[in-house]
Design a protein that fits this description.
heterodimer; A: about 90 residues; alpha+beta; Ubiquitin-like (UB roll); five-stranded mixed beta sheet; 2 helices; about 20% helix; B: about 375 residues; mainly beta; Methylamine Dehydrogenase, Chain H; four-stranded antiparallel beta sheet
Chain lengths: ~90, ~375
């Protein structure tokens, strides 16, 4: 499925703004994403498997908060860095 | 982009800032300074540190606005950088239990000379981590992080800058003898390479607690030991400047010898590399709401050449008035030249330096982001 990558994480994806990664759940997708692009998962998900404070994950425009959320091959996953900072 | 290396000049200062890292390099006379282009522009660099055992190894403790913490590594004196493969992280908590997660890596300390490749990292929330491969992979030091008293030692919560573990000090005579500081928590000591720990705060004030006579819960801002006299420790605390001569157990408030109108509050404290009695602090305003800026808007270092028995103001070349910056705990350092150079970085994005041990000052760089740390590259020490 298509995964859209925000600019702060594109140093991991050779500057690709979207990549194709498989996964039957958000957790599986992120594990596969990290296999392809080592280190990317920890910048989004902490060691307790919580989505970091300023990261949002959307599946087909719907926000998800649980990594156990199921995915279909046709889904589009969008990773967003929440507006913050200064 | 200017690809900088730490051995480009005779003296190199590594600058960690709120928006990236920089190298500031000079010739041996320290008369001409050159600033590199930024490294990791936009990333928070809490601490950038060179390995005194192998000057080619550099580590940077980093975080990026939206993203989790990380550590960047160089093995070629800063020419190229890579992210560490396994970052400092607490163990995953059992199902249903609440676990700790590293918010940021705040402090980096190279290990003992007899243990090449070993580094320690301090995090927020307070955590101690160890690497045995030059910072590429990190493991928790369970003896501290899971100590039965950890919850008590850290229960007072953090400071406005976070709940920080910092000042990881390795006794140069013994790799098993380690000190660390926690803001708010206190100073702690281990004599068995981190398996067991005990508080070391007797004599320190904790005016912000209802019971100032506690054995832990203090707020050390910066703790140092002298490399040539490792039984001599100094501490710039939230509640004063202290000295401890081991095996003594009780800190002495040498800040009581500071001018009363200036006080003895600040973040950094540094020592002359060859003289354990020679120390510098950078006082800040700790009155009423704690502005944490230079007292009366007139910045100065204060130097003691007798172990804190007396202090002398050094402000030649610094702004005479209306200067309201802060110098953070990692943002003051010395080089190893003769006479010793002293440097500090400000929250206003300036780096000031003195090539005569603080007697006169000049601004070496300005218009930088808020400076979090200044350290010297190997060869400059």
């Amino acid at each position: 499925m298509i995964v859209r990558i925000p600019s702060p994480l594109r140093s991991y994806t050779a500057h690709e703004s979207q990549v194709e990664i498989e996964g039957s759940s958000v957790a599986a997708l992120l594990a596969n994403l990290d296999r392809h692009y080592p280190g990317i998962r920890f910048r989004m998900i902490d060691e307790q498997d919580h989505i970091r404070q300023h990261i949002r994950i959307f599946v087909n425009s719907q926000p998800v908060s649980e990594l156990s959320t199921s995915l279909k091959a046709t889904d589009v996953v969008q990773i967003i860095c929440a507006l913050s900072g200064g | 982009m200017v690809r900088a290396k730490t051995n480009d000049g005779d003296v190199t200062i590594l600058i960690g800032s709120r928006k990236g890292a920089f190298f500031l390099t000079a010739n041996r006379s320290r008369s001409r300074w050159r600033l590199s282009d930024p490294l990791y522009l936009g990333h928070i660099i809490y601490h950038a540190v060179a390995d005194p055992r192998d000057g080619r190894i550099l580590l940077m403790a980093a975080k990026t606005g939206h993203l989790g913490p990380t550590v960047f590594r160089s093995t070629d004196s800063g020419l190229t950088w890579k992210e560490a493969q396994k970052l400092p992280a607490f163990p995953k908590a059992p199902e249903g239990a609440e676990g700790r997660a590293v918010d940021n890596v705040f402090w980096l300390s190279p290990g003992h000379p007899s243990e090449p490749g070993v580094w320690y990292a301090g995090t927020s929330p307070p955590g101690l981590f160890r690497s045995e491969d030059n910072g590429d992979t990190w493991e928790p030091v369970s003896g501290f992080n899971d100590h039965p008293m950890y919850g008590e030692w850290t229960k007072q919560g953090g400071t406005p800058g976070g709940h920080l573990l910092h000042s990881i000090l390795i006794d140069p005579r013994n790799p098993s003898h380690i000190y660390l500081g926690i803001s708010v928590g206190g100073v702690f000591e281990s004599t068995d390479k981190g398996k067991n720990w005990h508080p070391l705060n007797a004599g320190c004030a904790a005016d912000f607690l209802p019971d100032g006579g506690v054995t832990f819960g203090h707020d050390p801002h910066c703790v140092i030991l002298h490399p040539l006299a490792p039984d001599r420790l100094y501490q710039q605390n939230h509640c004063g400047i202290y000295r401890l001569d081991r095996p003594g157990q009780e800190w002495t408030r040498i800040g009581n010898n500071m001018p009363r109108e200036v006080g003895d509050i600040g973040f950094p404290i540094i020592t002359h590399p060859k003289n354990p009695d020679h120390i510098w602090v950078f006082p800040m305003d700790g009155t009423e709401v704690w502005p944490r800026t230079s007292p009366d808007g007139k910045p100065a270092t204060y130097v003691s050449e007798d172990g804190g028995a007396s202090w002398r103001r050094q402000d030649r070349g610094l702004p005479r008035r209306h200067a309201y910056f802060t110098v953070k705990r990692q943002a003051m350092t010395v080089d190893g030249l003769d006479p010793v150079g002293v440097y500090f970085g400000t929250t206003g994005g300036e780096v000031w330096g003195s090539s005569d041990q603080g007697e006169s000052w000049g601004c070496l760089a300005r218009h930088l982001p808020e400076v979090y740390s200044l350290t010297m590259a190997v060869g400059s020490r």
